Amino acid sequence: MSEQLRTPLKKPIWTLVVLNLADGFLTYWGLLAGAIEEANPLLSGLPPLAIFSVKLLLSACLAAFLFTPLVRLESRVWRCFLLAANFVYAGILSLHVIWIALLYL
């Protein structure tokens, strides 16, 4: 049995980890530059380093799922949930690309 078949949720989880890290880094950078404001009401009152730390911790927690039986689940619901989360994060990163382009071009 191939690795993909035995761990069907591995790629969507890794993708979510990477997208969350990229979002954390770009948010931190944008906040320091004064180019953006944090849109998440749970994080908006925190300083940039604290926001980055929370996002880094969340990425570590997500990566920890790779070492649990969750990655072996053959669940369509979990796969759809992770793909939806990846789609949302991709949209957020698209917004980051837009403000970077507006700021530096």
UniProtKB/TrEMBL annotation:
Positions of transmembrane segments: 12-36, 48-68, 80-104
Domain DUF5658: 15-101
Keyword set, alphabetical order: Membrane, Transmembrane, Transmembrane helix
Entry-linked InterPro entries: DUF5658
Residues annotated as signal peptide: none
One Pfam family matching this protein: DUF5658
Name the UniProt record assigns to this protein: DUF5658 domain-containing protein
Source organism (scientific name): Planococcus plakortidis
